[in-house]
Amino acid sequence: MMKRGCRVVFVHFHSYPIVSKVSQEKAQQITSVLTEYQLRSRLILVPFGDVQRQIVATSPPSLRTVLYRRLMFRIADRLAHRSGARALVTGEVVGQVASQTLENLAIIDSAAAMPVLRPLVGMDKEEITTEAKRIGTYEISIVPDEDCCQVFSPRYPATHAHFADVEAAEAQLDVRALVDSAVAAAVHEKQALAGIEDMDEPLVT
Q1: In sequence order, which ranges of the chain are alpha helices (DSSP H)?
Q2: What is the average per-residue pLDDT within 89-100?
Q3: Per-residue confidence at 203, pLDDT binned at 50, 70, 90?
Q4: Strand partners, 88
Q5: Which residues pair with 101 in a beta bridge?
Q6: Domain 2-192's class?
Q7: What totals of helices (H) and strands (E) does the chain contain, helices first?
Q8: Exposed, middle or buried by CB within 10 Å (0-12, 13-18, 19+), for 122?
Q9: Is pLDDT above 90 for 149?
Q10: Which residue, of 11, 20, 27, 51, has the fewest CB within 10 Å?
Q11: CB 101, CB 129: distance < 8 Å
Q12: Could you read off the pLDDT of 163-197 as tens digits, one per residue?
C-alpha cells in the first residue's frame, strides 16, 4: 500500500493481560521497520481480551473465530474513520486458516463499512516469507508469541459459516458497547524517523 502512495496506520489487537506483551512488542518493532518506508507512522494497540470473553460466554465455539474477526473489523472501521482513513487492509490469504475461506471472508467483510483490501490474498506462504525477508520484518514475525486469535480458539472452527447463524450469535452480544469500550481503551503510539516532523494524514489503515 505504501508503494501506491498510501500512508498506513497500523492496528494491532492483543489480549494482554491474559497473555504476555510479546505480541505488542512485535507490533511495535514491525512498525518501526516499516516506518522507514513512510517516514512516520501511528500504531494503535487495541485490547481485545474482554471482547473475546463475551463471545466465549455467549456464542457457539465453532463461530468464535468469525465473530472475533467481525468485531475486529467493526473496531478497525471506527478507528479508521477517526484517523481519516479510506479503507481497511489485512494480511489474509484465501484458505490459509479456517476463518479465511471465501464464505467466511464474505461474512467477515460485511461487518465493515469501509472497503477491505487484501494485498496478499492469492500469495502462498513461501512468497509471503520471501517478501517479509526483503522488507526486514521476517525475523521479528517468527518470534514466538500468543496473539489474540489463539486465545480461546475453538478446536473445530466453522470453515463455511452461515450468515444467519452468525447474526443470531451476534444478537446475544452488545456489539456497540464492545466496540465503544475497545476503541476507548486503544493506545495510540507514534513513530518517526529522526529529523522527520510529525504529520497525521493517513490514507489507509
Answers
A1: 22-38, 49-58, 64-83, 102-109, 125-135, 138-141, 163-170, 175-185
A2: 88
A3: very low
A4: 116
A5: none
A6: alpha beta
A7: 8, 5
A8: exposed
A9: no
A10: 20
A11: no
A12: 999 999 999 999 999 999 999 999 999 999 877 75
Amino acid in position 203: L
* Cα 194 to Cα 39: distance, rounded to the nearest angstrom: 9
Answer yes or no: are the C-beta atoms of 190 and 40 closer than 8 Å.
yes
CA dist 56 and 45 (Å) reads: 22
Q: Which three cell numbers stand for residue 181?
A: 469500550
**What is the distance of C-alpha 36 from the center of its chain?**
21
Domain boundaries, the chain: 2-192
> Cα separations (Å) of 74 from 30, 110, 169?
24, 10, 16
C-alpha cell, 10: 497500523
Cell of 68: 472475533
Per-residue pLDDT tens over the stretch 108-146: 999 999 999 999 999 999 999 999 999 999 999 999 887
